[in-house]
Every structure is written in C-alpha cells, then in structure tokens.
Amino acid sequence: MSGYDLVLRSRRVVLPDGERPAAVCVRDGRIAKLAGYDEVPGTDLGELALLPGLVDTHVHVNEPGRTEWEGFASATRAALAGGVTTIVDMPLNSVPPTVTVPALRRKQDAARGRCHVDVGFWGGAVPEHLAELPALYAEGVFGFKAFLVDSGVPEFPPLDPAGLAGALATVDALFVVHAEDPARIEVAPASARYADFLGSRPPVAERRAVEMVLDAARRTGRRVHILHLSAADALPAIAAARSDGVRVTVETCPHYLTLDAAEIPDGATEFKCCPPIRDAANRAALWAGLADGTIDCVVSDHSPCPPALKRRDSGDFGAAWGGIASVQLGLPAVWTEARRRGHGLADLVRWMARRPAEIAGLRGKGMLRVGADADLVALDPDAEWIVEPARLLHRHPVTPYAGRRLTGVVRGTWLRGEPVAPTDPPRGRLLSRVDVDGSTGDRSLPLGQPAGEGRG
C-alpha cells in the first residue's frame, strides 16, 4: 500500500516548473507528494495531460433574484464539465447584489448545498454602500467589483472617478474594475449590424478608463485589477504603470482571444458582450500581451441570460443583453487558439489556473504543488470536437461557439482528491477570504442543505 488516498500518474503532468512525467499523490484532499512517474503505483493516465483544476474568477451566477438567468447548480455543473474546479462569483446580477453583509449571507444561503465546484464571492462597490466595504471584507469576500459605466442593472450603479478613489481609500482590498469611460460611449443603435454596435464602444473608451484606474491606484497605493480587457490600446499604459510600481493586474477573456469582429454575422446577438469583441489585429495584440506578461490571466466573464433578452428573434444588437456564457468552453477555446500560436499547456495553466488564483488570493488553488488542494483535471489535449449547444450545461445553451471545432476534452476531474462528474451530487465548498489567507485558519463555510443591456 502506498499510504495515499489517490495516486494519478501521467506522462504529461503540468507542474509549476514545466510539463513532465510524474505521479501526483493525494492524502486527505491535498497533494501530499509529487513523485517520479515510476516511483509510486497508481492510476495511469498515460498520455492524458494532468492539470490543476482551472480557476475562473469572473463568473456571474445571478442567484438569488435572477435564477431564471443562471443559478449555482447550473453554473457550477457547467464549470465542472469544463475543467474549472473553483469560481469566484460576481456581486451582480443577483438581487440583492452583494454590497452588504446581509446580502452576502443571502448569496451564501442560495449557494449552500448546490455547488459542484468550490465557490468564492466578490463584494460590490456602489456609491450608496461604500461605508459597508470594511465589514463586507471582514466577512470574507475576496475583493470588490466596481463599474465606471452603467452596469446594465439598476441595483448596481457605477462609481465616478471620485467615487472610485473614495472606495480605494476605504479598505485595503483588491478592486476589480470594469473600465470603460461613459463619456466615450454612445448609445448603441437599434441595428442588426455588429459593426454599428462595435462603433458605439470604441477602444478609446477602454483606454481612457484604464488610465483613470491606474491614476487612482498610483495615488492611493491600492491594488487594482482590470477586468475583461478587450482593447489592446490600453496595454502600453498598463505596462508603464506596472514598471512604475503601480499594483495592477489584468485579465482578458476567451472570446476576445478567439473571435473576430469581421466574422460576426448580422443579427448574431449571441456575440454581444461589453466591452465588445474587436478585430483580428487587436486579437493578435492581446495574445502578445499574454505572451509578454502584461496580461496576467484569462477568465470567462460567464454572463448568461434568457434567450429572449439576447433578442435573438429580432437580431437587435442595441437592445440585446451583453454577455457571453462560456464557463464550460473556456479551456478548449483558449487551448485551440493557444497551441495554434505555439503556446503549451504550461502557458494555459499559468493563464487559467495559477494566475487567477494568485490574484484573488486563493491559496491552495491553481497549482500542482505539495500542500495544495488536490483539484485535478485529466485533459486529452489532442481530441477534437464540435460545440453542440444542447450539450452545454449552463441554464440557457446560447453560445457564439455553436458549430465551432475545438481541441481539448476533459476526461476526468477530481475535487480535493475525489472523482467528480456533473451528474454527481454537489460536493463544492463555499470559500471565504479569511479561510484561505492564513489570518484565521481553515474554517471553510459548511455545505448545509439545499434556493436591458449587460456589462461584464
């Protein structure tokens, strides 16, 4: 007997220092040893790649309040099918939004017993509740989401520049910011032409807003994170600020890395998101930003809604909800394009597991190392398949990836060393910042029993 609860062997284990044959040995839900491939007997995955479970820190679950859009059971089932073992839920579009301690508790109550993966929570920074931020942070949210532009839902208003500076001064936490300048955005016209919608949200709107966020971070010394960067025009300012010591990190999303504005058909509102998908030259510049480290990570911005809100009947980009549901598809979508561009699985893991976990402060997630949670994914990196919406597990199977040929199939997933599948009963835990940052020890929340135009 090896003395371990689980041993997985693979010729392609993606470790922090690269990909190589190895055995991952698990005891009590954590990685106890990383051994040589032939050192310890166990389940042999052969040429299947063994990765840490992906970490998606940008997921709109929408429950409670808009559970008809998405819920914890459906969102986390889809995440698990896509090799994601940890998500962090955005404070909107739930009702109430997660802007007070009672609202956080309602969110936790809605999630408890329904999650197929581990789930943490962002708090929200809105004008009328800035005084609540310290108490909400003490309750365990991982940081605070803020908008500089209309969020698309009335219960989550944006901050102006003074409001953002005030929020940063209120608590020493990570602020994750939707950075678009409302002064540079026009009302999207009622039109079935994607080009008309794209023109209403030009790259300068992102660049100017990112510069404002960087200035606020520079003046306060606080940590900021730029959400769902779509405009590569902002990358030079980000790189310069970082070299000056500004504490800034950046994410982009699978749709900005894999889709091209020129290929979006008229009326195809499933492609609408905010900020928008841009052209192929911009996409190439985002890939360059990933390669040189200016962009830290790739997360989904999973933002589903009922088909009627997507205006698929009319094809009106102006009226359609802006959000793409892709928590199940992020891994194969990014891997398909990444390997075409010469990147390897170690890059994929860095962008979609390690860096999201590090940025959010999710210690024990996103890496195969001794002491980490044994959240594991067996990936067939060469298998090709075609996206069929009916096989997607989020609540409404609407996707711009329909019919797209992708590479990479998840063949097995383990959560804290236990094999899990979307058809299994939920085994995910609710995560709190105070459980994982070492300040108060390990006291994960109990599982208990089973409750317009969008912006990301």
From TrEMBL:
Its cofactor is Zn(2+). InterPro entries: Allantoinase, Amidohydro-rel, DHOase/Allantoinase_Hydrolase, Metal-dep_hydrolase_composite, Metal_Hydrolase. The keyword Metal-binding applies. This is allantoinase. The keyword Metal-binding applies. The lineage of its organism: Bacteria, Bacillati, Actinomycetota, Actinomycetes, Micromonosporales. It comes from Plantactinospora mayteni. Its EC number is 3.5.2.5. Residues 50-420 form the Amidohydrolase-related domain. Gene3D superfamilies: Metal-dependent hydrolases. Residues 416-456 are annotated as: Disordered. Keywords: Hydrolase, Metal-binding, Zinc. Belongs to the metallo-dependent hydrolases superfamily. Allantoinase family. Coiled coil: none annotated.
